[in-house]
Amino acid sequence: MTHTGPHAPPAASPAAAPRPRSAAGEWRTAAEEAVAVLAAAGVRRCYTVPGESFLEFADAVERHPDIRLVSTRHEGGAGFMAEAEAKLTGVPAVAAATRGPGAGNLAVGVHTARQDSTPMVVFLGQVTTDHLGREAFQEVDLAAFYTPITKWTTTVTRADRLAETTAQALRTAATGRPGPVAVVVPGDLFGERVPPPGALPGAAPPAPPLGEDERDRLAAWLVDSERPVIIAGGGARAARDELVAVAERFNTGVYTSWRRQDVFPNHHPLYLGHLGLGCPAPVLAALESADAVLVVGSRLSEITSQSYRLPTPGPGAASTVAQIDIDPDQIGAATGVWLGAVADARRALAALVEVPAVPSDRDYSAAHDSWVRASTPPPGAAAHPGPGLHPWAVVEAMRAALPEDTVVTNDAGNFAAFLHRGWWYRHPRTQLAPTSGAMGYAVPAAVAAKLAAPHRTVVAVAGDGGVLMTGQELETAARLGLALTVVVFQNGLYGTIAMHQARELGRTAAVDIGGPLDLASYARGLGAAGLTAATPGELADALAEAVAAEVPTLIDVRTDPDLISPEASLTDLLGRP
């Protein structure tokens, strides 16, 4: 390769002269400098499918003593792994993919990070500089492709700027509302030798606090309200203790937003429920009748807001709304607010706790009991005659067999409605779930969770549709010696779409997956253990065996395809007798 540019070292034979030196020290490759920046920022893994457009980058990660290069079976799996690790740890995670097809496969994980506000940096190898713009092999305009699904996408044009761009990418990913950043690098730049970088952009700036005036107004508002509630989202993930303290100080009920159930202990008497898909009417009652709603760290997505219906402030509406969010663009974006405060959730809630308060003697026991009833399996679920197990019975068995602090990663699909209802998140950072609804998330997320927290019990929960998309990452788990469990609800359907089709059209199309498939054999073929459960007793035994195993274990649970949601059967939706 011919080096050009103001910092190019003199030409030499590959085996000849020692590395050239600058006054500041030894010159390294641009890839080595970038990886050094990542390691200094606390990045400990890079997930990838190796590609020819970032050879030196993968090599630099592999050789760095503080970062592990994790080879996955598909870039989609790599993206989900990076997203899950960052969600679990709060530290920006890294993935890398090659041009064209690799970047295309990775995009689903990046979009998941965007919708989930997860800090993540992805490196995309591009065609070489001299071939750019010629529709070279696998060339795609990666900057144009990734800009809509990232906080920032940039193309590096000089090798000596890669370390600086890497530092800026880490800063941007973690500043304000976290999110993914894409760094596009022509393949020839990674291997160029560059001088040691100068001053690099610093870490994310301190998070903004809650102003005293805002604090006092919010505190008085919560005290004076008759029926206040809090909606807490992912922005409150690092503020769980403060959130509990505020709820108790002001005697205020708490809802958790879509797939953010672990931000507040579900067994707490002030917990009012999860604002997810198909939220039961009794669970929503306290929100519908609230006269004050404090939204903390939630963008009030379509699902959390029940199709942008709640909360409903304004003339004639039941409630006034205040919102605390670190991103000013989110405040008032989904609904009008009485007060909007741009602040870090943890600092804001800690400030509110300091205010002396004597709230009204409110009673949320009935609202909490509504959630308890909604999350209780119906009588006879364990004795369901079949065919297959009742989905409620699967969740019941999980509650009996798994530790309370199990990290649960869940996929998209109608099976998840039973999990969202039946599994109580009592401990922080125990739920890894995509608010984007991306299928195939659970297994890769479990791999990342076990790598990041090897001492934790990690269980992936998926449908057969999701596990057939990314279940090959069981090979990654087996190769790396990760003892995790995968519970598959196998009903032979793309259940969510079958439900929508039955409800809207009265018939189904293209939702039959087939089977029953021997997913236990599939797992064994990938180097994992595989078990099958068709009765409650078999499932209890399988869960006990899986939790005690020292290898990844998939449990193929055969469930009744007619039980499409906690409220409906497919037969009823189709209008069949």
User: What coarse outline follows from CA principal-axis ratios?
Assistant: globular
Distinct helical segment count: 20
Average pLDDT reading: 93
Low-confidence stretches: 1-24
Strand content: 15-25%
Q: State the major sheet.
A: 6 strands, parallel
Distance between the termini: 72 Å
Structural class category: alpha/beta
Total beta-strand segments: 22
The percentage helix is 25-40%
Radius of gyration: 25 Å
Placed side by side, the strands forming the largest sheet appear as: 5-4-6-7-9-8
How would you characterize this protein structure?
This protein has 577 residues and is an alpha/beta fold. The chain contains 20 helices and 22 strands. Helix 3 (75-89) runs parallel beside helix 4 (101-115), helix 12 (391-401) packs across helix 13 and helix 12 packs parallel to helix 19. One of its GO terms (cellular component) is acetolactate synthase complex. Residues 1-26 are annotated as: Disordered. Belongs to the TPP enzyme family.
Describe this structure in a few short sentences:
By secondary structure, the protein is α/β, with parallel strands linked by helices. The protein is built from 20 helices and 22 strands.
